[in-house]
Amino acid sequence: PRVEFCGYSIPHPSENRVNLRVQTT
To answer: Domain DNA-directed RNA polymerase RBP11-like dimerisation spans what residues (predicted)?
Structure first.
């Protein structure tokens, strides 16, 4: 899961909120 969360952190820098959600999950 960390790879995916990190994955969209690069292409979707504006979706940090989503990344945080995935990281917490």
So the answer is: 1-25
pTM for this predicted structure: 0.16
Contact partners, residue 9, CB within 8 Å, separation at least 6: 16, 19
Q: Tens digits of per-residue pLDDT, 1-25?
A: 455 555 455 555 555 555 555 555 5
Are 1 and 11 contacting, i.e. CB atoms less than 8 angstroms apart?
no
Sign of the Cα pseudo-torsion (17, 18, 22, 23, in order) = negative
Backbone angles phi, psi at 12, to 5 degrees: -120, 75
